[in-house]
Amino acid sequence: QVQLVESGGGLVQAGGSLRLSCAASGRTITYYNMGWFRQAPGKEREFVATINWSGESRYYADSVSGRFTISRDNAKSTVYLQMNSLKPEDTAAYYCAQQTGASGTIWDVSLADFGSWGQGTQVTVSS
């Protein structure tokens, strides 16, 4: 079982930037697609971005496309989410997750496709 720990969240003004990190330990993440999700108070957890095992392919939710960038460093067992031009509606707890199987695609973005989750890191964007 892989353990995922997110960090880098905080309070930022609208238009600002944050970089989230997700450090993995235990089972390797090298051969697995990884994703970022978020959950605002009173709302369901939603997909943000996925990246394939090699880092060559990425997929984004329409709401963050062009502002967020997902990346990974397999040598460091770490996945990143660079968030630019932040908006108040980006306020949420952000979660890193690993797809359950090694044969999935970056378009498999339902919660059920991901078997390992971090504890989340809070991002608050003030207007």
3D architecture notes:
With 127 residues, this protein is mainly β. 0% of the residues lie in helices and 50% in strands. It contains no helices and eleven strands. It has strands spanning 2-7, 10-13, 18-26, 34-39, 46-51, 58-60, 68-73, 78-83, 92-99, 114-117, 121-126. The strands form two sheets. Strands 2, 4, 5, 6, 9, 10 and 11 form a seven-stranded mixed β-sheet that branches. A four-stranded antiparallel β-sheet has the order 1-3-8-7, with no helix packed on it. Strand 5 and strand 6 (58-60) form a beta hairpin. The chain is globular and about 40 Å long.
Task: Give a brief outline of the structure.
This protein is mostly beta strands and 127 residues long. It has no helices and 11 strands.
Count of alpha and pi helical runs: 0
Query: Globular, elongated, flat, extended or rod-shaped: what is the shape?
Result: globular
How much β-strand is present in the residues?
Answer: over 45%
Find the count of extended strands (DSSP E, 2+ residues). Answer: 11
User: What number is the mean pLDDT?
Assistant: 96
* Order of helix and strand elements from N to C terminus: EEEEEEEEEEE
Using the CA coordinates, give the radius of gyration.
13 Å
Question: What's the arrangement of secondary structure elements?
Answer:
Layout: E1 2-7, E2 10-13, E3 18-26, E4 34-39, E5 46-51, E6 58-60, E7 68-73, E8 78-83, E9 92-99, E10 114-117, E11 121-126
Parallel strand pairs: 2-11
Antiparallel strand pairs: 1-3, 3-8, 4-5, 4-9, 5-6, 7-8, 9-10, 9-11
